[in-house]
Structure formats: C-alpha cells, structure tokens
C-alpha cells in the first residue's frame, strides 16, 4: 500500500489506511450479519407480562464504534431483525437511530414493527435524572418512544463515570418508575443484572412488576437457576452474548 501512496503525505497515508480498515470491518460485519440471518428461524415473539410482544431474536450493538454500526443495523433490519438493543453508554445511539429511521422512511418497516431497547446508565439513578436520561436517548435515536428501557446495572455511580457509589437504593428508582410510568414514553419497567434477592425486594414494593431481566447467558454460561426463578415470577430473560462475548474479555 505504501508504494501506491508515495505521493501522499504521512497524514494522508494514515487517512487512506483508516478508510481501508473501515471498509474491511464493514465487509466482515455485513458477511457475519447475513450468515446469522440465514441461520435464524422465522421471527418469533414472546408475550411479556404487560401483554406487549417482544421479538425473540435481537440485534445487539455493544462495542461497535459509530462508523461500524450504521450499516450493520441497516443490514440487520433488511435481514429480518426487528429487535435492536441499544444503550446510552455504547455511545452510538445517533447512528443506530439514523439507520432505523432510514428503513422506516424507505418503507422496509414501520415504527410499530420495530422493538427498540435502550438502557439507563449508572450515574443517572437519582429520581430526577431518570426521565432526562431517557429523553436524551430518544433525542439521539430520533424516536418518539422506546419499547423497553432497562436499568443497565443495579449500582449507582457518581456523575462522570467514577466508581464511587451513591447511597441510592434500587427501591428509589423502582418507585419512581412505577409511579410515573403513565407519563413516560416507554411501555415496560424491567431491570437488568439483578440477583434473586434484589428481584424479591423489587417485587415486594413495585406497582408494575419487571417485564424482563437481561443477563449474560450463553451455551457456556447457562444461569438456569436465575432463569427458572424469573420465569416463576412471570419475567422473561433476555440473554446477552448467547454465543459468548470475546470482546468483553479484551
């Protein structure tokens, strides 16, 4: 490649290499998405305890940089995915929203066809921070509502992503969600990454029970005890990394 770029400055050469790298990533991602879609069964749905239906097969967007996520989301929707899993901390909601809106605008899907999930980050657990955080995700996605809004992790951080922990009990967030859900633009109030004791405390005080719990569950890490307990309470499990999560280990 250097022989072909001798006439470029060092800065320009780096830029060209970066473009080639991005093209290679896009090719790999598109190929992977098509292979997964080809293996996937016809889309099926789970009925949540709220009565709403959630597509059983979801497309995760963790650890994807902005330039690497927009096209894969387009391809995923074209391939039949209707459940897109996002989060504030992934820092790519703008690009995901742009892809979703493109497929709505070109008639591939309607907004009602899509099931969009986002997540509340750990520095926004205070009662007065929840709604603004949700609205920020909606603004970035360019959507009027979310279908599912998860507490990303049941531990509260101080602002600016430090690891110092506030003394904010998870009950406070649940009470806020339960008593104000009628004015929110999302339908369900689930919790991610909770253990059985936490789930019991939530169920003891909530007016609206959690609809789902998202945990790391895979062929190598089948958390059957938690799955069975959640099912006994009418709560569905969403598995992240169902085929493993090598990126998390880097």
From TrEMBL:
Site (Lowers pKa of active site Tyr): 119
Domain (NADP-dependent oxidoreductase) ranges: 66-245
Pfam families reported in the protein's UniProt record: Aldo_ket_red
GO terms of molecular function: oxidoreductase activity
Active site, UniProt feature: 90
Source organism: Dibothriocephalus latus (Fish tapeworm)
Region forming the signal peptide: none
Entry superkingdom: Eukaryota
Name of the protein: NADP-dependent oxidoreductase domain-containing protein
InterPro entries the record matches: AKR, Aldo/ket_reductase_CS, NAD(P)_OxRdtase_dom_sf, NADP_OxRdtase_dom
Binding site for substrate: 152
